[in-house]
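Hey, can you fold this one?
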Amino acid sequence: MFDEIRFNTIERLPNYVFAEINDIKLAARRAGDDIIDFSMGNPDGKTPQHIIDKLVDSVSKDKTHGYSVSKGIYKLRLAICNWYKRKYDADLDPDTEAVVTLGSKEGYVHLVQAITNPGDVAVVADPAYPIHSHAFIIAGGNVHKFGLDYNEKFELDTEMFFEKLKKAFRDSVPKPKFVVVNFPHNPTTVTVDLSFYERLVAYAKQERFYIISDIAYAEISYDGYKTPSIFQVKGAKDVAVESTTLSKSYNMAGWRVGFIVGNPKLVGALQKIKSWFDYGIFTPIQVAATVALDGPQECIGEIVEKYQNRRDVLCESFANAGWDMGKPKATMFIWAKIPEVAQHLGSMEFSKQLLKEAKIAVSPGIGFGEHGDQYVRIALIENENRIRQAARNVKKYLKNLEAK
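Sure. Predicted structure:
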């Protein structure tokens, strides 16, 4: 009898591609294999000591162990607004235009749940971080996708983006209500300049849609590139919100601290739904997060330097092994096109073979959308020695593949 009961929301979600790779990886490790793991964007470094010290100090106090405020303590909301002012000269109200979230992913999903009506359409470029699309499916909405175009320097083809976006507004019924952007981009590492956001804000006002911008990797940039914010554009708060996180820039992924700021109507909707869902992050973590944002920032430069060194070592050593890939200007990833000798495999089979034969774990591009199937995502979470070992394994694997 219970077999007839359907769960429509879950049935609209595809199988999680990365779970299959993870199962193979775990089985190999249980069998004693040494897997060099580039598959998940999980920072391997320690949280800076001054942030840890503040957590320890706060957690030792008697009055920090009760329920917190679901939208975040005032000092932390003020700290994120001050961060935006220092970094982008953007003015935000900590009461009406900022909310603390349990990482950017939770905040994004709950925002989408709060503002999506059944049948609403969101535009999301493909490939994409999976939750950017599937949050709308979970909320009962629909997603219009188009391929993301970029050059060999992983810079967005802005003209093509707007050509496809305008086509989405011509073709979609009903017209899209939301456009999701994520730059620097996960998984492709694609970057934009401020003029992109100027055009996007103007188009949002023309067509009457909201923009959800994700800049989770804003601080992780190289070679002089600086990530812009949509709130550097005059009038952006009329149509946009933006999410950020401490996960990558401060090695605080497990702490689960993020923010969504901007349009007071959308931020207010998120604040309201969170008041029903949760009681906020543990107060000592929020206090420590305040110190992260307001305190010394040299630690970010050290973290970025580590990722840049790994990027350079990986690109050079893998190229010597027969796998050329472009250097990204931002994020902690490399978006690597599958070597020519293996392109016929597709990203899923190629990733499986790398695991089984080269003892290397990567994320198959198909997991991010159909336009990612000729690529894999490599996370810069292994040290330089492990990267060089991976390159030796790759060289042997590719030679064996060529010989078949």
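The CA atoms of residues 100 and 259 lie 5 Å apart. Let me know if you want another pass with a different chain boundary.
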